[in-house]
Amino acid sequence: MGPDQLGAAHFHTASKPLKEVDIRLPENLVKGAVKLDPNLKKYLSDEFPAESNTNVTWAYVTFDKQNEVLTDLITRLSIELKLPQSERNTYALKFEDRGNDGNGVFLTKENRSLVPQGFILILTASPECYAHNLLGRLRNPSVHTGDLRTTLTELIALCGDISFAAQFMRIGGYDYIFEVIEKGLCADSVSSQSRFLQALLLLMDHPGLLYWSQVSDEFVSKIAENITGRAKQEDNTLLVSSLNIIDLILNSKNEEKMNLVLREVPFESLIRHLEKSDERVILNVLTLMNSLYNKARDHVKSDIVEHLHVTPFRCAIEKSVLRKGKQLDVGIEQQLIIVQRIQLNKLLEKALRIPTEAEIERVFQLKLLHGESSKGMHANVVSEEKRTEFLNFTEAVIQTPPGSLALETILSFVTHYADSIAKISMENSMRSDNNLWSLPLVSVHLVQMLIDILHVVNEPEEGDRLMVLLFKSDRPFLDLFVVLVKLFHRTWREMHASEEDIKKVLAVVRKQINVCLLEKPVTIEKLEELLATHSYPHMKKIWEKERSAKEAEELQSDAVKELREHLRPGIVDLVLKNRKNLLKNGYKFGKLVKSKSMQKGQQFWFWKLDANEKTLICTDCSGTESSSNANSAGNIKIDIADIQRVVAGGEGDFPMSSSTKGKKNANIRGITLEVGDKPDLYHLVTSDEQAINAWCDGINALIGVDKLSIQAQRQVDRFLNIELKMRLLELDHIPNSIEIPPLPTNFDWIPENIANSKISITKV
């Protein structure tokens, strides 16, 4: 037996197939490792005699996530790791470190289901031991600054855990932090103050332990000092925590605390913080500003809105928050949008107020609005035109909106832009066609337009979007209104409009401003630059492009494509009928003669189709004749039925004279008719491309060849588009398919002779 045979003797095939065995553990059982915390003794009480000679630092364990009692597991592990035992709660398990805080979350019955297969847990001191240890270290008066910083870092890392927070509160940890802040025990160390506040924010974030409405008034006042500048030192991290805490207290639904915050933190004290480059500060300042506005009483809200329009606020927003080249944080943008809505809501109040008759008359009588002399109008001599204009002005103003906002805007316009009004009035009065427009009435319409554009009354469904230019002007609404007045004046001239065209001009102005705002100009000046390029002639080009794009889109819908195919045969027949009519009118072609010179002795013949469309008739003619008598004796008649095909002669398709031995002339164009079974060739010479296409299309249609020239195809498409556009003129929306209604549930209305027949009614 050879070596191969000897080896093979030890292997054999199983007589029965092997059964697959699932060696996976049940879902509730997980295997992993537990590591002993090397800093365990640090957090145990001093009297606890922890063994120092143990070398066991790891244990491997199977954990039943559903049924095993955690205390039993911890006891089993402490024994396996040779730790001293105690009757009180000494040890606990933590998840492995998450993130860079150096601490994990304690394992509890609430989160035990999160333990994964192949876990690594840390056996460490219990939350109670951690709480006692850290609070004791915080209270130790001999702690140096460096040690305090380390202790606070450890505290912050643990404050996010609910188990630790509950124990820390139970032993008075919360109270101690409040005491430190209220008494200013760390007033000399901004860093320590900041860390205490960070820890407090994390501790207070746990539900059911302590609420912001329960803090003392002394605590609120102390935190407010960090914001208003009454504190000795400032730090961005300390400021961020202080702003966050004040905002939480303000929104804690405690009216006493809310009023205290409103007194301790004036709105104007926040503006200076917007100049900082730290985005955390800016975000929290804007958030608190919006909260202060929401909680303030009406008269205080008016003061806040005034502060939003003063130069310090605008400069801080422009130079720091919206500085050029800076990517705006999403959170900051959302808070700015809320500030923007606050400003717009103030305009809304004015827009919804109906002005009195005295207010209306006082504004209308302003001399500057009518371009009158310093003497003004005579009260007793008011022209009929002025009376009509006043009635129209009154009717427009008492609508809400624009209401009192229109009058206020016009008054501000007269106050701050008198020179612009004088210039517009002078140019308006100097028009040669005498087509003037009423500045007071148009101003009201422009205020209403601006209300619509800015969504002053109704917020857009998709939500407000940030308009940066509103934050870069002390009087944004007025400045935008002035831009609209100038734009209306320019567009009026460009349209050569008359009094009855006011609505048309207003519509164009609305389109102009909307198009330019889509480009998101950041300043009023940039908006004016954009409007300068969007003149009325330019807008007409834009509308033409939009109209063409809309028509092209409509023509590509499934329903229109189906209609196009339905209409195409009729249009093709129409084009071919036109071609046949051209053949009936006849055409003078040149003959292909056997001569060395095609220009010498050029001969012509006249071809036409008879009225019955059965015969082609041709006769010789001179170069000066435009037609020929079809009944002359020299006529050649060709039956349409005998024509085999027609070929459009391109360059090089016509043979020259026999002396050139069959070479083709590259300068002659025309068509060739092949007649009869042994075809006779008729060469019809012409350089007119339209005539060649028309005769080829017409003859092909007569002999039943389904072939169109490129020229004819283009004509068919052009006629189709015209027909489709005519049919779609009155349709705003073109459905892609027709909805077929469901079948009726009762068929009793069908006559008996039809109901008893074999005709069946089924769903489509």
Automatic annotation (TrEMBL):
InterPro entries referenced in this protein's UniProt entry, alphabetically: ELMO_ARM (IPR024574), ELMO_dom (IPR006816), ELMO_domain-containing (IPR050868), PH-like_dom_sf (IPR011993), PH_domain (IPR001849)
Residues in the signal sequence: none
Protein name: ELMO domain-containing protein
Superkingdom of origin: Eukaryota
Function: Involved in cytoskeletal rearrangements required for phagocytosis of apoptotic cells and cell motility. Acts in association with DOCK1 and CRK. Was initially proposed to be required in complex with DOCK1 to activate Rac Rho small GTPases. May enhance the guanine nucleotide exchange factor (GEF) activity of DOCK1.
UniProt record, GO biological process: actin filament organization; cell motility
PROSITE patterns: ELMO
GO cellular component, one term: plasma membrane
Occurrences of domain ELMO (ranges): 358-517
